[in-house]
Amino acid sequence: DQQVKQNSPSLSVQEGRISILNCDYTNSMFDYFLWYKKYPAEGPTFLISISSIKDKNEDGRFTVFLNKSAKHLSLHIVPSQPGDSAVYFCAAKRSTSYGKLTFGQGTILTVHP
Amino acid sequence: DAMVIQNPRYQVTQFGKPVTLSCSQTLNHNVMYWYQQKSSQAPKLLFHYYDKDFNNEADTPDNFQSRRPNTSFCFLDIRSPGLGDAAMYLCATSSSGGTVVKNIQYFGAGTRLSVL
Q1: Which distant-in-sequence residues (6+ apart) come within 8 Å of B5 by Cβ?
Q2: Domain A4-112: which CATH number of 2.60.40.10, 3.30.70.3340, 3.40.50.10490, 2.60.120.1140
Q3: Using CB atoms, which residue from A42, A46, A106 is nearest to B104?
Q4: Which of A31, A110, B48, B89 is spaced 20 to 30 Å from B13 by Cα?
Q5: What pLDDT shows up at residue B102?
Q6: CATH 3.30.70.20 fits B4-110, yes or no
């Protein structure tokens, strides 16, 4: 039973355009959500997060939106750059827990110059 | 730079031959995690150490064991690797204190295990 799903295995975007990566979750106990980025031959690195008390969190070119009623979150990258090409993982946890991240399968983002 | 280091990066073992993967960290984090990631799948938590306390996930096979001799090091032992154990193994660390934001997990680059 996969509690966090990223239904798009890959996404291709032109440089300068918006990239939108989507993530759905099923466990209502999750109240903290994270996005990690992974380059080839490197480990995942933390990108941005959002608490369930918010519906939006912005950090530079990266914005995460949370729709609790739909159990859906999305990561927007504007404008997209070739260096953003990577695998993006959505993850969820309970804020009362120090650990136990549940990950999605990842979405491969390719930004073309 | 403070970091999480996994060795080796690539490991080839034979079916049934025990193998050990290692992880070290300079972040002085008290929690260390081991994840298994198979191709095109989500990383799956196997177990974690909270300080010296071992916490196993319910569905982690007994074939997988772990040791944490001190704060900096953690080992993943696969007692009898099967073909299905071929995967990327990721080590991560986090602090358990403070706000949730401080509980961000930091990952190593992983060890890719092949079983022949």
Answers
A1: B23, B24, B25, B108, B109
A2: 2.60.40.10
A3: A46
A4: B48
A5: 61
A6: no
Residues 23-42 of B with CB under 8 A from A: 31, 33, 40-42
Three-class SS of residue A18? Answer: coil
**A101 contacts B105? CB cut-off 8 A:** yes
pLDDT tens string B21-35: 999 999 999 999 999
- What backbone phi and psi angles, to 5 degrees, belong to B2? -65, 140
Contact A91, A24 (CB under 8 A): no
**Structure-model confidence comparison of residues B77 and B95, the more confident one:** B77
pLDDT range class, residue A2, cuts 50, 70, 90: confident
B11 at interface of A, judged by CB pairs closer than 8 A: no
- Domain ranges across chain B: 4-110
Distance from CA of B88 to the nearest CA of A (A): 10
Q: What is the mean pLDDT of chain B?
A: 92
